Amino acid sequence: MALKDDDYREILKDMRNSLRHAGLGGIDERIISELHGSQGPFYDLVYYLKLLIDEIALGGDEQIKNVLRRVRSSVETDSGHLIDGIEIQLSPEESDRYRTNKLVFGPDPALQEIVTDLRSVIEEIKEDHYNEANPDRGFKR
Fold first, then answer.
1. Dmax over Cα atoms in the chain, in whole Å?
2. What pLDDT is stored for residue 139 in this prediction?
3. How sure is the predictor about 122, in pLDDT bands with cuts at 50, 70 and 90?
4. Quick one: which H or E segment has residue 89?
5. Residue 8 in contact with residue 49, Cβ under 8 Å?
6. 134 pLDDT higher than 70
7. Nearest to 29 by CA among 21, 37, 20, 38
8. In degrees rounded to 5, what are phi and psi of residue 24?
9. Which residues of 95-114 are buried (b: 16+ CB within 10 A; e: fewer)?
10. Do 58 and 69 touch, CB atoms closer than 8 A?
11. Are the CB atoms for 11 and 47 separated by under 8 Å?
């Protein structure tokens, strides 16, 4: 059964409520502030989920999130991929002192499973939407 506009609206509403009830209202507000106008309930939901993935991919530590957000907004990589962390190589003296060769600041690897799951949800929603819009062609990725 294909999702309808009311279904997309309800899913988005539930997602927003879930974030707020989990104490993540700030993330919800940041995502909503990025939604400039509405392209319709389907597109609003997909865009919201993509922005949520971006937030989760930044990790759980607020300071690391802020640093990565700033770096991502001002640094471009040759590959075009976003910077997902910062690695600091220590000098031999520092390595001896701290008993490690490097410091790594980045997202919590446990959160990456959530990112993977959300990407799957987006693909399923898109597949459902595009197959409903054009049932003869099927969804092309």
1. 66
2. 47
3. very high
4. strand 86-89
5. no
6. no
7. 20
8. -115, 35
9. eeeeeeeeeeebbeeeeeee
10. yes
11. no
**What does the block give as tokens for 17?**
């409520």
Is there a contact between 89 and 104 (Cβ–Cβ < 8 Å)?
A: no
Residue 59 CB neighbours (<10 A): 21
Tokens describing residue 104: 């790594």
Read off the amino acid at residue 86: I
- Over residues 46-62, the mean pLDDT reads 82
Which token pair is 111? 């959160």
Confidence at residue 120, expressed as pLDDT on a 0 to 100 scale: 93
Q: How many CA atoms lie within 13 A of 1 on its CB side?
A: 2
How large is the average pLDDT for residues 23-32? Answer: 87
**Structure tokens that stand for 140 in this block:** 């092309």
The answer to whether the CB of 128 falls within 8 A of the CB of 3 is yes
Where do the structural domains in the chain lie, given as residue ranges?
5-133
